[in-house]
Amino acid sequence: xxxxxxxxxxxxxxxxxxxxxWTSAWAAxxxxxxxxxxxxxxxxxxxxQGPAAEALKAxxxxxxxxxGKYMNARTDAQLTKVIKEGGMTSGFSPLMAAxxxxxxxxxIKEILGFIRSVAVPKYQKK
Length: 126
Ligand code: HEC
Hints:
Elements: H1 3-26, H2 32-37, H3 39-42, H4 53-56, H5 68-71, H6 76-85, H7 105-117
Bound molecules: heme C.
The site of heme C (HEC) has 23 residues, from α3, α6 and α7.
């Protein structure tokens, strides 16, 4: 292998890495609050497969936020209500606890933004 080839390979590799870092910065990242309070069940990526989800499987299916078919039909107001008041007042499992006392409206909005960003197909704001 010539020196020139080596240099070409190394710089291509570097370019790919830089592009990877750059594009991942654009993907929505969950907030710290989401990671602490929600990810154990809903998963870091929002796919409903956090470490606690498996244990809860027999009693409740943790919501998969990437399921756009279901999630996109839910309004911001409905989802905000569940986050604030817990599942029970909306007819869902009490395992989805109320977080209204632990999260400010701004934090809930940020979390909702993350939840919306992971839906497939993509969520279109109504
Ligand atoms: C102990 C596990 C657990 C934790 C922690 C948890 N959830 Fe949930 N969540 C659930 C379960 C289970 C459901 C589904 C309830 C059902 O279908 O009856 C749910 C459902 C939801 C829904 C769907 C509501 C709808 O309209 O369908 C949203 C939104 C949600 N959770 C947000 C959050 C947020 C935000 C946090 C963190 C602040 C959080 N959850 C933390 C278990 C959890």
